Amino acid sequence: MLAVLILLLLLAAASGIGWLLSSATAAVWASAPPFMVLVWTALALLLLTPLVGRTFPWIRDWFYLFPALVFVLAFTVLPVVLTVNYAFTNYSGENSGNPDSAARTAAVLSADRLTVRLPERDTQTPLPEFLKCRTASCAGDTLVLYDEDASVPREVKIARIGKGAVTLAAPAPAGLDVAYATRINRYGYVGLANFQDIFAKASRALWPVFLWTVAFAFFTVILNALAGLILGILLYNKRLKGRNIYRTLLFLPWAIPAVISVQMWKALLDQNFGIVNKTLGLLGLFAVPWLNDPLWAKISILFVNLWLGFPYMMTATISALSTINDDLYEAASIDGASRWQQITGITLPLLRQSFTPILLSTFAFNFNNFGIIYLLTAGGPAQEGRESTAQSTDILLSWGYNTAFAASGGQNYALASAIALIIFFLTLAISLVNFKAAGVFDEARK
Length: 446
Fold this sequence. Notes:
Blueprint: H1 2-28, H2 36-55, H3 65-86, E1 105-106, E2 108-109, E3 115-117, H4 127-130, E4 142-146, E5 154-162, E6 165-168, E7 180-183, H5 193-200, H6 206-236, H7 243-255, H8 258-268, H9 275-282, H10 294-321, H11 326-334, H12 339-367, H13 370-376, H14 396-406, H15 413-438, H16 440-445
Antiparallel strand pairs: 1-7, 2-3, 3-6, 4-5, 4-7, 5-6
């Protein structure tokens, strides 16, 4: 633990130095690329690591932990921290903290480079409203200036505003030929507003999506487990001729990438041109709206997911059956037990211990199985009375995805982060219930 603490402090010191040096670089070199912070951090690590090694000679044996710490912090800790942070802000496409290119307007800089006139704003929206200032005077807020090419934005502080003009706190950067100006789309903390918005519209998004997510994961586990169990028991029969051929053929749906399989099924289930409905038409049956009706779309998802998932369960069943001693079946046969009695009295009880973690992990996977929803139905079809981001087949994860990247025609990362936190707590609660029901905690205590 002491070694981990020292390595974390080393990384923090190098990151701090990298950030300071990159800020200094940006002040001198305005067009410096953002990755300079990584370059300076890496150079700081190269210099600080030998110093730490000489100060604590014993820590050299623990340097192998350093890459793992970097990856954990970069790809696990940082995303979690950002998600939690954004959940309490209004961070979105509209409030991104970046210059608003859509609000860019013509600007004229005075000779003393202290006043920026905005001719197009003289008779339009008041400047405080246009600039989204925190105060009526706009003192301390930020104005973004561009040259004629509008290639590199330069941020300057505002001292005060007048009618159609902005007085800067310091002269505009030398060499900048100002032609345009715009505002910063700043974001800030809004407390629990995102969560209040989610629960205020719970009947149109949260609860129907949550219930379908649970139902989707539950029925997928049941159907796939039953199909895999039945096929696994049948194919494990050593007296079955050609069983290796059957295994290979039934294994193919799992071997083919899901992206290809789902797109194939999407074409097959097309209401107008799919081969499934064409076949039903030849039989004199009506075409089924497999992907165009909310109920049939759910059935289609379960069916396609069965196609994708049963080979895994079948393989797991065959592997588990190989661990059961054949002497048990031989003794049961001598005692006069039928094949069905052997299955219910020997096979299923002995498979329970092997299948419990498989079923739990399968439920957890399908609870967040974004791929099949996105590829097969994209969350649709639309359903009356529901949010545009939470349609009939959307699960919690696809709802969060839609909110983050397609909410009301823009991005709402803050609301999506709040949804992610809700998904986390719901998943945690369901996992605890599953573990409790499966006796995992009792096994751990033993």
